[in-house]
Design a protein that fits this description.
Strand content: 15-25%
Function: May play an important role in maintaining the flux of carbon towards starch formation.
Mean pLDDT: 92
Protein name: fructokinase
Distance between the termini: 44 Å
Oligomer: single chain
Enzyme class: transferase
Helix content: 25-40%
Shape: globular
Low-confidence stretches: 1-10
Number of strands: 13
Largest sheet: 9 strands, mixed
Keywords: Kinase, Transferase
EC number: 2.7.1.4
Structural class: alpha/beta
Number of helices: 10
Strand order of the largest sheet: 5-4-1-8-9-10-11-12-13
């Protein structure tokens, strides 16, 4: 699988997927984040930067693997030092990276990210174009996609061709193979040509997904300013007939959930935050790892609440350490937090 995708390219290694029956395949961008060595400053004020692996779909793939699950990543990086570093990071984290491709002409994407003193995140992206935007449909590892129990993706790959068409093709392959389609829009407005373009493209694939995770800010953006806490807004504007689960993440406050049969809220797990980077991705990886093992969770509210409390704990642990991939928790860490936490047991 994928061994001869790039002739003579030893950077592209297949990790034996431990159990293809529970495989989570993540599609999209992987890049290098440059983060200031001190907190609470603007990018211009930062004295120096430290590099870290980034990209939401890749974070989720590592998160699933860290929890003991089986995961793979599909995407494109540059045939450069950073691209090779990212492929190695996936391999070292037991993520099947055989679906990665290396572009000889475009560079691996870079992003400078800071959390300013006022609490706002500031982004500066270098993608003109970057390799992740150039993945072709012909470069897809179709066999890997067809093995997915869950196929997970975001919206950043929709910004430019050819990657937009490639993502749509990958989604169709996964759907035809019986995979559960999972969508986290992960809105990054600075990357889009306009707010209208972002809203239109993010919603263009909305009805394909079986599971969607969104934030409060994304509800406000996608609905044109409606109240993100209003159940009627969520159900009328964002819940579609084929959707099995819509989750609204509320950071430290936990999450809300909506299915065809029931809706509710699960409390967050209290911790002392250090860095919120990757918390949403850790939450998604916790939820998808549970679903990959047991899809009946979607029909059983008690099981779903337990899975969402587990996902909340994954996100909570991640904010206690710096970075996304380094902070993704192990199963033991999550279970220890839940057993020591004062959070109420999930109940209807």
């Amino acid at each position: 699988m994928g061994e001869n995708a790039i002739s003579g390219n030893l950077k592209n290694l297949t990790i034996d997927t431990k159990d293809s029956e529970t495989l989570v395949v993540c599609f999209g961008e992987m890049l290098i984040d440059f983060v200031p060595t001190v907190g609470g400053v603007s990018l211009a004020e930062a004295p120096a930067f430290k590099k870290a692996p980034g990209g939401a779909p890749a974070n989720v793939a590592v998160g699933v693997s860290r929890l003991g699950g089986s995961s793979a990543f599909i995407g494109k990086v540059g045939d450069d030092e950073f691209g090779r570093m990212l492929a190695d990071i996936l391999r070292l984290n037991n993520v099947d990276n055989s679906g990665m491709r290396f572009d000889h002409n475009a560079r691996t994407a870079l992003a400078f990210v800071t959390l300013r003193a006022d609490g706002e995140r500031e982004f500066l992206f270098f993608r003109h174009p970057s390799a992740d935007m150039l993945l072709l449909e012909s470069e897809l590892d179709k066999n890997l996609i067809q093995k997915a129990k869950i196929f997970h993706y975001g919206s950043i790959s929709l910004i430019e061709e050819p990657c937009r068409s490639t993502q749509l093709a990958a989604m169709k392959i996964a759907k035809a193979s019986g995979s559960l389609l999972s969508y986290d829009p992960n809105l990054r407005l600075p990357l889009w040509p306009s707010e209208d373009a972002a809203r239109k493209e993010i919603m263009s694939i909305w009805n394909f997904a079986d599971v969607i995770k969104i934030s409060e800010d994304e509800i406000t953006f996608l609905t044109g300013g409606d109240d993100p806490y209003d159940d009627d807004v969520v159900l009328q504007k964002l819940f579609h007939p084929n959707l099995k689960l819509l989750v609204v993440s509320e950071g430290p406050n936990g999450c809300r959930y909506y299915t065809q049969e029931f809706k509710g809220r699960v409390s967050g797990v209290k911790v002392k935050p250090v860095d919120t980077t990757g918390a949403g991705d850790a939450f998604v990886s916790g939820l998808l790892n549970s679903l990959a093992s047991d899809l009946t969770i979607l029909k059983d509210e008690k099981k779903l609440r337990e899975a969402l409390l587990f996902a909340n704990a994954c996100g909570a642990i991640t904010v206690t350490e710096r970075g996304a991939i380094p902070a993704m928790p192990s199963m033991d860490a999550v279970q220890n937090l839940l057993s020591s936490s004062s959070s109420p047991s999930p109940r209807s």
